[in-house]
Input
Amino acid sequence: MSDPVVANLSVSPEPSDLEAAAIVAAYDALWPKPFVADTRGARVTPAWRFSGRWWASPLPLRRGRPRS
Output
């Protein structure tokens, strides 16, 4: 197993040794593992971009003009 997880884990009724081992193994397998993200070479891109959207152009350009 990996590093021990410090948590209050109570199971009732009292499981057998085999059941307790299976519960702890499942708990350990499902617990999120810490990791270090590799950010080398990753570009920082804004989550939202306004380029190319209709509301990004100036207001006078968005107004409809009467046809002549």
User: Anything to note?
Assistant: The chain has a mean pLDDT of 76. The chain has two helices and no strands.
